[in-house]
Amino acid sequence: DVKVTQSSRYLVKRTGEKVFLECVQDMDHENMFWYRQDPGLGLRLIYFSYDVKMKEKGDIPEGYSVSREKKERFSLILESASTNQTSMYLCASSFETGYGYTFGSGTRLTVV
Amino acid sequence: GIQVEQSPPDLILQEGANSTLRCNFSDSVNNLQWFHQNPWGQLINLFYIPSGTKQNGRLSATTVATERYSLLYISSSQTTDSGVYFCAVHNQAGTALIFGKGTTLSVSS
User: Fold this and answer.
1) Could you give the count of Cα atoms lying within 13 Å of B5 in the half-sphere of its Cβ?
2) Which residues 18-57 of A have a C-beta within 8 angstroms of B?
3) Which residues, 6+ apart, have CB-to-CB distance to B41 below 8 Å?
């Protein structure tokens, strides 16, 4: 089975901190995605990547950046965490851009 | 961009009841999928159904692409069906999935 592993299940950070959320997949997938999930808003796409060192902005990229130095790892970076970034963050990978998504278990981030 | 609307937002059922969840989308799409998120947060793909009807056990889905909607049917619901159901479609560039806001289903015994 494809596995998408997110490094932390729960994370508490202070306002202004630089935060790294890590995601690793083990099936050589080309595409990786970061979503955030908030009550009543569903999943919203932050950034995605279709190749190493390639990245594309999603619908809500403000306040975030990403890094993909290796095919299996896709990192989401909060440059200066703010309380409105408190959310559940979900990473996914897929072989094709719209098919066969596999999601990680999510990281619930609280910014205080 | 493409808009995805799901209804109802919340659904409460007794075990054994049937239900229908709806997904409307604003533009023609060639990729519609249904996902289930369990109460522990794990998202699983249920159906890839750009058109037509598919069935998997007690779940089935129908997409009428020309009328821009899809339906997910759950029959004889069980407590394990609880969670959030999302439909998702390709963004206009075809590079990523865009999700609706979800339907939260609670099935009680």
Assistant:
1) 8
2) 33, 35, 40-45, 48, 50, 56
3) A88, A90, A105, A106
Q: Is B94 within 8 Å of A44 when comparing Cβ atoms?
A: no
Phi, psi of A84 (to 5 degrees): -75, 0
The string of pLDDT tens digits covering residues B71-94 is 999 999 999 999 999 999 988 888
Reported as a pLDDT band with limits 50, 70 and 90, residue B95 is: confident
Chain A residues near residue B6 by CB distance under 8 angstroms: 42
Cβ distance A90 to B43 less than 8 Å, yes or no, reads yes
CA–CA min distance B42, chain A (Å):
5
B11-26 tens-digit pLDDT: 999 999 999 999 999 8
